[in-house]
Amino acid sequence: MYCVLALLLAFAVSSTSTSATGSYAEDRALIEDLQARYMFALDFGDVDAYLSTFTEDGVLDVGDGEIKGHDAIKKAISGMPDRRAAQASGDATKLRPPTGRHNISNIVIKVDGNKALGRAYWFHYGNNNPQRSATFDSYGHYEDEMVKVKGKWLFSKRRIYNENRDKWAAKGVNPAW
Amino acid sequence: MYCVLALLLAFAVSSTSTSATGSYAEDRALIEDLQARYMFALDFGDVDAYLSTFTEDGVLDVGDGEIKGHDAIKKAISGMPDRRAAQASGDATKLRPPTGRHNISNIVIKVDGNKALGRAYWFHYGNNNPQRSATFDSYGHYEDEMVKVKGKWLFSKRRIYNENRDKWAAKGVNPAW
Amino acid sequence: MYCVLALLLAFAVSSTSTSATGSYAEDRALIEDLQARYMFALDFGDVDAYLSTFTEDGVLDVGDGEIKGHDAIKKAISGMPDRRAAQASGDATKLRPPTGRHNISNIVIKVDGNKALGRAYWFHYGNNNPQRSATFDSYGHYEDEMVKVKGKWLFSKRRIYNENRDKWAAKGVNPAW
């Protein structure tokens, strides 16, 4: 018992953030994995995997207001795979279906016990053109709130900013403290 | 001894994955470093550093079948630096040699003792044009198997998917569980 | 006391690098956070946050020689936000101000006690055009030296290579060991 306490203290010293489980690195590693799985789920149209990255009452906000809870989020995003299929079937090129990929980078994370705040950039590229040529097309940033539930980090809120449109763009102040 | 066991247990609790060395964060950190060193080696034509990221009997598969072992991989990739030099020498612009850069993002990692599975995106940009202007040109994803040998994580298998060609593109199902 | 020593040894075994605070993962996590905060500060014109990523006598070198210390660095970069405002005000499109974003990837880190060496790629995209369309425009790499001061990792030196210009481009040899 003394031993585990010593361990927790040893880690806390090296970070400005503290964690109930003892290590900024451990929390950050799990959150990075969450962030990456979110992207795969989104781009490959895996609705269940996408929802599983949010708490049951989690909030998604793409800039048009809060979408709260798995059911509402599912409804909001369920067009994703269909849209892709429609795109493909309506495509006269007879090439493979187009693909698109969201990427996360510059991840800043503050951990406070079982809660965490995240800031990160995202950017997107795809090949939805007749040549299926790789094209960079959009970017923005995330402002996230996360919670640790039964040892797993989940999004309690993801707010997305998108520089492709006036109303969705960042407001200019550094969001990463 | 009790102490180390307590430590291992303390970490295991916070992760769905377990590790023989005690920490998902520690394994993930070492694997991220491996993934990054692979990229530098590839883009700077450092064949030895590239090979050193694979086990002796490691497999590379770019979509045309398995290339197994250091000798075979070396043969398969040894054209890299030469091709670059040839490109440069045949370049009438008299500019510096063109460069290209592979990047990894969205890294998902599952660790099970001394083995790990990885999924990640890759994308590439370069300036192989008369203006040496930075151009985004290709992307895909990795499906990796890694093993820990004497404290070092290495690729035992790297399977590359590339969205620039029909036969090398992903098959549509979310590869990241 | 024995307990903490056992912990430090347990971690050291799994990494080629050692750390005074016991964990490669912990140091790497804090350094990744530093690297990400640097980017937010740079792109959002937050001079104080930018300077706070360097030691007091830290060195920035973008390829034209060393800029040493907070005052000199502040002078060198203080044009950033102003330039952005000027750009925006001189912009006849009446669109929102243009934005640009630097990203870091492929981070390789070697830790030795309270010192660390870093190698990483950077790339930049933005929308400084009349359509505010997302455009990929430049890339290069970083060669960093970092030190841990009172539990916080800081840049003691950041050397930037930029592939957009002959004199700032990498010299061809793999910088990541």
Helical content of chain A (DSSP H or I, runs of 4+): 25-40%
Instruction: Look at the structure and give the mean pLDDT of chain A.
Output: 86
H/E element sequence of chain A: HHHEEHHEEEE
The end-to-end span of chain A amounts to: 36 Å
**Alpha carbon gyration radius of chain A:** 19 Å
Strand content of chain A: 25-35%
Q: Biggest sheet of chain A: strands, sense, closure?
A: 6 strands, mixed
Oligomer: homotrimer
Q: Any overview of this molecule?
A:
Three copies of one chain form a homotrimer. With 177 residues, chain A is of the alpha+beta class. Helix content of chain A is 32%, strand content 34%. Chain A has five helices and six strands, in the order αααββααββββ. Chain A has helices at residues 2-13, 24-43, 47-51, 70-77, 79-89, and strands spanning 54-61, 67-68, 100-112, 115-126, 135-149, 152-162. A six-stranded mixed β-sheet of chain A has the order 2-1-6-5-4-3. In chain A, a hairpin with a 5-residue loop joins strand 1 and strand 2. Mean pLDDT of chain A is 86; it is low at 1-16. Chains in contact: A-B, A-C, B-C. At the A-B interface, helix 1, helix 2, strand 3 and strand 5 of A face helix 1, helix 2, strand 3, strand 4 and strand 5 of B.
